Amino acid sequence: MSADLTRLGAADLADRIHSGDVSSVEVTQAHLDRIAEVDGDYHAFLHVAGEQALAAAAEVDRAVAAGESPASPLAGVPIALKDVFTTTDMPTTCASKILEGWMSPYDATLTSKLRRAGIPILGKTNMDEFAMGSSTENSAFGPTRNPWDTTRIPGGSGGGSAAALASYQAPLAIGTDTGGSIRQPAAVTATVGTKPTYGTVSRFGLVACASSLDQGGPCGRTVLDTALLHEVIAGHDPRDSTSVDAPVRPVVRAAREGAQGDLKGLRVGVVKELHSDSYQPGVLASFDAAVATLTELGAEVVEVSCPHFEYALASYYLILPSEVSSNLARFDAMRYGLRVDDGTMSAEQVMAATRAAGFGKEVKRRIMIGTYALSSGYYEAYYGQALKVRTLIARDFEKAYEQVDVLVSPTSPFTPWKIGEKVDDPLAMYLSDLCTLPTNLAGHCAMSVPSGLSADDGLPVGLQIMAPALADERLYRVGAAFEAARGPIVA
Length: 491
Known about the structure:
Blueprint: H1 2-7, H2 10-19, H3 24-42, E1 45-48, H4 50-65, E2 79-82, H5 109-116, E3 121-125, H6 159-166, E4 172-176, H7 183-189, E5 192-195, E6 216-220, H8 223-233, H9 251-258, E7 267-271, H10 281-296, E8 300-304, H11 312-327, H12 347-358, H13 361-373, H14 380-401, E9 406-410, H15 426-430, H16 437-442, E10 445-453, E11 460-467, H17 472-486
Parallel strand pairs: 2-3, 2-4, 7-8, 7-9
Antiparallel strand pairs: 1-3, 4-6, 5-6, 5-10, 9-11, 10-11
EC number: 6.3.5.7
Domain Amidase: 26-475
Protein name: Glutamyl-tRNA(Gln) amidotransferase subunit A
């Protein structure tokens, strides 16, 4: 029975819990048992909060027994939380030695929403340190492994959340997406991940990497599960100055409608600049097959040009490190976190020694790049120019959406590579985000849905669906229709 429960989707589990067919405690315990059984092979979790999760589950069961309405459509369904959101009852480390063991005095808004929705939090998932990376190899606590092939990466920075889903350790997960950190892990683990419109999910209590790019979002094994979670976590938050004061988009309704398989009247744009011969052949073949499926579903497919997308990578890797340089200055060894001090050191020496010991190589690399880009005499030449390119990319999107309703591309140019294969070549690692970066720079929304397995190596490939800001429901309509037409992905 326990194994069966871990194979069920979140929507199905919610129905069974709310009808009394199964208890939330049973479902939560089944997933905790699964974590204990297999996570030694995958290292998806940094911290497991079994006692707290079971207590939250028991409260849902009490409400069901009393005949009370569920706190949310997902009440009782457990979740894995990326270790970049603050939690008062378990450590928040951002997978960094500088925050090892740190207990936050407050919950992130997203954490609080999960608790109020009656969703038991199984624990905190592994990630690239401070969300900087595309492979989850930059974690100070060791890499996560892809359940499809444990010699390979699960994507990043949210590889722990994606691996937890793919290995049936959790039916739902939360990630964050700064340049693709929800979508790229989803693509390489055959799961679903959405980057919502910037500002529609609160960033209060999300430990900042790059504040103008970071966005929390939902992850699941199906489009409907992901939509249900999206509606739970979205909404205006006065504590987040960048929060959008707008109604939550009807993404669940869109997912249910899309599953009927009719895309007649929908205009789909294939982005010419995100379809290159340099991409892995199996990825391109899977993408072309996905586009053919959209056509069969009734969509009108046209090619669209976004000429400034070719500069997205260069722009992003100036804007992000610049914001990292500013945001990570708060880790000064004076207020919280690691402190390296032999008792004879000045404050400046303590800061330097702590940062040297506490930050990993990739974090240091980005801090140094960003500090240089912001330095006197170089600001306009680097950061200023990158902001201008960002504007041009946003204008490319605007022109494209005058012609089409959604845009599509491969999520990542490559299937998951071997652990260790690219650690000494940062640029090769950065190239895995080529297709996902433009959406973050524009603040729009995008989703990755599994498109199949590559003929090259039998590993997962993702289809990226992009939509304008505050049109998140379009992602779910298209994603659900494609998912229904595609059918199950079998290794």
